[in-house]
Each structure stands twice: as C-alpha cells, then as structure tokens.
C-alpha cells in the first residue's frame, strides 16, 4: 500500500496515511478544528487551508469548485470531505 | 347585547403601525411588516412586544430595487405596501441581504410577479436560494455579488458589501451612496415592534438592541468586528436594518456601541499570556484531584495563566464571559449513569452563545467501569469547532500517585499546545483509526 503523510498544524500531528485517504477521515480523529457538516461536499463547513502539498491532492471536481467559490474560498482552500491525499506530504489547517 | 362603556385596547403604543409605505429617504420607502404578536424568535430569543420585518423599495430613474422581504405570513401586507410605491414591471433589482425565512418569505411570489428582476445576493446565499426556489431557480437572473460590485438604477446605484456571519454565512450589507442609507439586514437590528418605525420616535428599545446582539450576533463576534471594519468608512446618514427601529438619529452611535459589545466584557489584564480555564464537577473528589493535577502541570509554564473552577460553585453566564476571552478550556466530569453530569452539559449547551471556534479544548474525568463521559464531552467540543490536540484523560476511580503524575503531564502538554511549543508528533493511520 502506498503511503503519504498528512499534517494538521493546529494540533501539531502528522499521520501516515494510505494513499486515497480523505482529509476528513483523519481530521476528526486527531481532534483538528477542521470540522464537517454534510460530508457530501455541499455545505462548505469542512473548508481547509492547504499550507503545503496541494499538488498531492486529487483534482477538485466541478462541483467542489463551485462550492468553494460560493463559500468564498481562496485558491489554497479545499473541501476536506472531498479531496484525497494521493501521495507525498500534505500540510493543512482549518480555513 | 349591551355596549360596554369602554373598549379594551392593547396598551402598547402604535403596534398597528402605518397602513401604507413609509418614506425613509428621497426615493426610499419602508414596505415591510409589523409582527406585534411574536414572543419567541428563532426558538432562541424572546421579545416582549414582537418584531418588524423591514423591507425597502428604492426608486431610481431606471427602475426600482426591493431590498429584502418579510416572513411568509406577512407577504400580503408587504405586497400591499410595495404596490403603493411601484408596479411589478418596474422592479429591476431584488437584493437579498440574508436568506433566512424571516426575510425571504415573499421572495418566490415576488419573483413570479416580477420575473424580469435581477436577483443579487452574496455567493454564499446561492445554495440557500436554490433550496428555496427549487426548479424555479433556473427561471431567473440570479447572481452572486461581492464587496465592490454594484447595480445601477440610473441616477443612483446600490453597492454591495460582503459581511458573512452577521447571522448566517450569506449575510451582506447594501449601500445607497446617493441617499447615504446603509441596509444592514440583521446587523444593528432589534426585535422591537413599534409602528412609529424610527429610532427618534419609538419607545425605549435599548435593551432590545443589546439582547438581540447577545443572542444573534455574539456567537459570531469576530465576524461582526470584520463587518464593522468594512462598513465603518461609509458616511451613512441612516442605518436601515431588517428588524426593529430604523436608525436615522445618531446612527453611528449604534455602530460604536456594537463595537463595545464585541469587545471583552472583562477588564483585560493577561497581556500576552495564554489562558487556560479548567472546570470540573466531582461527586467523590476523584475528578477534582485530577483537575488539580492538570492545573499544577499547566501552571509550570510561566506563559500560561491557569485557573481552576468547581462548576457547581458558579453560574454559567459569568463563566461564559471568561471562556469567551480564554485560549483554552479543559472540562472534567465523572461518568454518571453512562453520561457526563448535567452541570457539564448545561455549560456545553450554553457555549453556543459565544465564539468557540479555534480555541483549545480538552476533557478528563474519573469513572467506575465504562467511562463514557469524556468521549461525549470531546465530541461536543469538536462540534463547537474547537481543536482537541490531546485525547481525553480518563482515570478509574480515585487517581494513584502515578495517575496524578499523568494528570500533571497532561496539563503540561495542554500548556505547550497553547504556547505553540508542543513537540510535533507522528502517528500511524491504524492507531488513529482505532480512536
Ligand atoms: C449514580 C452513579 C452512577 C454512575 N454511573 C457510572 C457509569 O454509568 N459508568 C461509569 O463508568 N461509572 C459510573 N459511576 C462511577 C463514577 O464515575 C466513579 O465513582 C467516579 O470515580 C466518580 O468520580 P468523582 O469522584 O469525580 O465524582 C457512577 C457513580 C454514581 C454515583
Ligand atoms: S462537510 Fe459539507 S462540504 Fe464537506
Ligand atoms: Fe437572521
Ligand atoms: Fe432576521
């Protein structure tokens, strides 16, 4: 199984995760302030700021892009319930 | 039937209000509705004499704009007032400063009557408007707008200011520069109903203004601060909110007063220190001992000011003022009948009234055999959007010397997270998944 690392700076913890993991699957368990509402990419509650490794995340779908725009997300923001870690190192904090 | 010698009338002044539209400024009319009978709003606040839903019509040389509407039950009243100042085919623009039902109850019908109108709202209102209009959403010219964008009505234009979370994520303010009127929707509102409408004419609504702030705006106070920063430079002569009196006499005083309301309620004296508050409830003293140990551990850090409180010795409201200013809280509770104790839940329930997002949270407690309480409290703290860097500390019955040392270490780590000195940790997926 391929590995990647996912760092949550607000609780200073790095998790070694299998590739394909969604950020939300880990953020809740490590106690990060990244929280969720719908878990279906609709509400924007889980908006997350990507500090490093944005290129290691799955491409946003058209729907995620629309929800990010409507929630006034910046260019380094993603939805934690939508994007998957594909490899390498990714560093995040709540948006 | 004999005629009574007098008729009983409600004692409150002018609750019936004006039957037609009311001029607010040249070309600007109030076309809202009075709801004198309302006693409970949004389930969370009371009102002793109802509220108003203020909607406004702005006439320009090239059409009319409608700013917000009313609660659905009052749609007829709203349409009657609107029809007295404009024809539906003149309506060029509908501005929705906020999508809550108390302001959008007449929107679907207004759009049916004025389908040519452009609808402008904050981008975060779009998904809500989609949910409100369903299939009809596609029929209209609906666009999200952000700070700096404007729509012209010919000789005057309306400019938008995105001010999220001055209630919901979708809130915005609208500025009519030519008449110096600022439409703020829920911001600067009060649930106070008086048909005389203007702050220099109505009864004493001061506590209503503050109470409304406390219940509606306080949980978002950092957003209120951002909104005020954004609109403060505008040279407004009238603040036209969507509830309660229209503020045309000394409008800036209400902005200044709101600035006071969002600032700390306590004398500020901690300077650059971080503050950690530890609250506990304890039946037999086990959780209390643990609380003391956590306190002692955290207090070893000179940059952290630690306080310890027995929740049963205080009232919730003053504790909330304290928590609002704190950087972190730790809550201790024994497990009683498979749950955290009621006093802790009362405190946790009350935390929705203040801004908790981003604060550090932690839970601890003594238990006998199952120990559910700590996890339940942690879930609630996460729901309040706090960060919980340390998994909760649970100790079976009274803590041993070694367990008290564990408590002190837990306190030290909480302090480190507050000062930013916490050592980075690396853990495996499997370990986390098991939590
Ligand atoms: C009425 C009552 C109900 C209890 N229910 C539970 C329970 O459901 N699960 C559990 O783990 N412990 C339970 N306990 C045990 C307490 O959690 C345990 O005594 C703990 O050490 C009390 O901590 P304290 O001294 O801080 O009050 C219960 C105790 C009492 C008095
Ligand atoms: S939780 Fe709602 S968008 Fe991710
Ligand atoms: Fe509202
Ligand atoms: Fe409202």
UniProtKB/TrEMBL annotation, chain A:
Quote the Pfam families the UniProt record gives.
Answer: Fer2
Residues annotated as domain 2Fe-2S ferredoxin-type: 2-95
State the source organism's domain of life.
Bacteria
User: What SUPFAM superfamilies does its record include?
Assistant: 2Fe-2S ferredoxin-like
Question: What's a single GO MF annotation on this record?
Answer: 2 iron, 2 sulfur cluster binding
Q: Which PROSITE patterns match?
A: 2FE2S_FER_1, 2FE2S_FER_2
User: InterPro entries per the record?
Assistant: 2Fe-2S_ferredoxin-like_sf, 2Fe-2S_ferredoxin-type, 2Fe2S_fd_BS, Beta-grasp_dom_sf
Q: What is this protein called?
A: Ferredoxin
Q: Which organism is it from?
A: Rhodobacter viridis
UniProtKB/TrEMBL annotation, chain B:
Could you tell me which residue ranges the Flavodoxin-like domain spans? 276-415
Q: CDD domains annotated for this entry? A: flavodiiron_proteins_MBL-fold (cd07709)
Q: Does the keyword S-adenosyl-L-methionine apply?
A: no
This chain's source organism reads: Rhodobacter viridis
Which InterPro entries does this entry report, sorted A to Z? Flavodoxin/NO_synth (IPR008254), Flavodoxin_CS (IPR001226), Flavoprotein-like_sf (IPR029039), Metallo-B-lactamas (IPR001279), NADH_oxidoreductase_modular (IPR051285), ODP_dom (IPR045761), RibonucZ/Hydroxyglut_hydro (IPR036866), Rubredoxin-O_OxRdtase (IPR016440)
Q: What is this protein called?
A: Flavorubredoxin
* Keyword Endoplasmic reticulum among UniProt keywords: no
Q: Name one GO molecular function term.
A: electron transfer activity
The alphabetized UniProt keywords are: Electron transport, Flavoprotein, FMN, Iron, Transport
Q: Which Gene3D superfamilies match?
A: 3.40.50.360, Ribonuclease Z/Hydroxyacylglutathione hydrolase-like (3.60.15.10)
Q: What is the lineage of its organism?
A: Bacteria, Pseudomonadati, Pseudomonadota, Alphaproteobacteria, Rhodobacterales
Which protein family is it in?
Answer: In the N-terminal section; belongs to the zinc metallo-hydrolase group 3 family.
What is its cofactor?
A: FMN; Fe cation
């Amino acid at each position: 199984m391929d590995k990647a690392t996912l760092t949550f700076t607000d609780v200073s913890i790095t998790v070694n995760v299998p590739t394909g993991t969604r950020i939300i699957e880990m953020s809740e368990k490590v106690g990060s302030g990244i929280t969720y509402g719908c878990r279906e990419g609709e509400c924007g509650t889980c908006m997350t700021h990507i500090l490093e490794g944005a290129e290691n995340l799955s491409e946003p779908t058209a729907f995620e892009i629309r929800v990010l725009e409507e929630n006034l997300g910046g260019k380094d923001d993603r939805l934690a319930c939508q994007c998957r870690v594909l490899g390498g190192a990714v560093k995040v904090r709540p948006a | 039937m004999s005629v009574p010698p007098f008729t009983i009338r409600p004692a409150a002044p002018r609750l019936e209000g004006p039957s037609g539209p009311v001029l607010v400024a040249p070309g600007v009319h109030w076309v809202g509705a009075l709801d004198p009978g309302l006693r409970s709003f949004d389930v969370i606040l009371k009102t002793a004499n109802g509220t108003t839903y203020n909607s406004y019509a702005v006439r320009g040389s090239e059409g009319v704009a409608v700013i917000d509407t009313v609660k659905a039950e009052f749609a007829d009243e709203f349409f009657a007032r609107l029809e007295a100042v404009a024809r539906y085919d003149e309506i060029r623009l509908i501005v929705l400063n906020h999508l809550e039902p108390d302001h959008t109850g007449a929107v679907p019908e207004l759009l049916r009557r004025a389908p040519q109108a452009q609808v402008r709202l904050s981008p975060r209102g779009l998904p809500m408007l989609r949910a409100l209009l369903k299939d009809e959403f596609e029929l209209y010219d609906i666009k999200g707008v952000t700070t700096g964008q404007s729509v012209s009505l010919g000789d005057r234009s309306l400019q938008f200011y995105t001010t999220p979370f001055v209630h919901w994520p979708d809130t915005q303010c609208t500025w009519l520069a030519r008449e110096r009127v600022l439409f703020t929707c829920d911001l600067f509102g009060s649930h106070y109903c008086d048909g005389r409408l203007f702050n220099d004419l109505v009864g004493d609504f001061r506590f209503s203004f503050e109470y409304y702030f406390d219940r509606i705006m306080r949980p978002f106070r950092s957003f209120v601060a951002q909104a005020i920063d954004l609109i403060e430079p505008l040279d407004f002569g009238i603040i036209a909110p969507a509830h309660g009196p229209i503020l045309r006499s000394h409008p800036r005083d209400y902005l200044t007063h709101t600035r006071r309301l969002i600032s700390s309620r306590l004398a500020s004296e901690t300077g650059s220190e971080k503050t950690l508050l530890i609250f506990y409830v304890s039946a037999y003293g086990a959780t209390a001992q643990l609380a003391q140990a956590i306190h002692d551990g955290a207090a070893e850090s000179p940059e952290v000011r630690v306080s310890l409180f027995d929740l049963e010795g205080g009232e919730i409201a003053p504790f909330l003022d304290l928590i609002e200013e704190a950087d972190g809280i730790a809550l201790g509770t024994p497990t009683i009948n498979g749950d955290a104790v009621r006093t802790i839940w009362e405190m946790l329930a009350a935390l929705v009234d203040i801004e908790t997002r981003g604060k550090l949270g932690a839970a601890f407690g003594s238990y006998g055999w199952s120990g559910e309480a700590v996890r339940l409290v942690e879930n609630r703290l996460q729901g309040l959007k706090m960060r919980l860097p340390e998994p909760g500390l649970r100790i079976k019955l009274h803590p041993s010397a070694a367990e008290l040392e564990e408590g002190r270490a837990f306190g030290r780590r909480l302090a480190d997270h507050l000062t930013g000195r916490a050592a980075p940790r690396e853990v495996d997926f499997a370990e986390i998944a098991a939590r």
